[in-house]
Amino acid sequence: MEHKIGNNDHIKTLNITSNASGAVRAARDGNVVVIVDIIDMSTSAEAALDAGAVDIFAASPDNILAPVKVNPEKIGYFAGKTALKHSSELLIVTEPRLEDKEEQRKNIQQALSGVRRAGVDVLDIIPNLGTEVVKLADFSEKVVLLVTQTGGVAFDAAYNYGAPAVTTGTVVRTLAKKGIKPAQESAARAVRLALKYNTGITLVAASSNSYEDILAAEQIAKMIINTGFLSSDGNILSDY
Question: What top-level branch of life does the organism fall under (predicted)?
């Protein structure tokens, strides 16, 4: 599923697609990529940002048969280097959702290898619970690495195929934001990145089989339009 909103000027394009393959196409087009995986990767990311996380990365778990290239070791490395840059600690959010650290650790060995290569220790490994994730750890001033099957794979693919920036988006309320605020902030973050890198935006529903991700991507697209991103009058983000 893919459609475009806007004109043919690359800077003013807003696209909606799905799956890791769609994330790859968006990266190759040079767009800022927004991964929408509301149950629960992108909602966990939003909750972490609300709680003061300084940066968010996401990667594929081990042994995923993705139709595109992924490199979780590379993303783990850059997450670790970002933690060093900010003199920060690093938290990993992953699956299964049960707090079984041994099982969780089994699935993230490649990402952990990258973190170790960067010279950083992992503060904690916690389950991917969406809004509730912030009840399990202190995210303030932390770098967060989400290693998850759907959203993590799409993020990993976009990152490794050269997107200028990869971020996340959700419509699910968090402990800090209710109503339309999560979607508004997701839209505003995407627009800020697109303006920074002088690019278009592609929203990626993490799975084409997830109707909630598709609907959420469409809602965030409407919010991006409301920022004025596709307009030519320069009045962008005036109400955000």
Answer: Bacteria
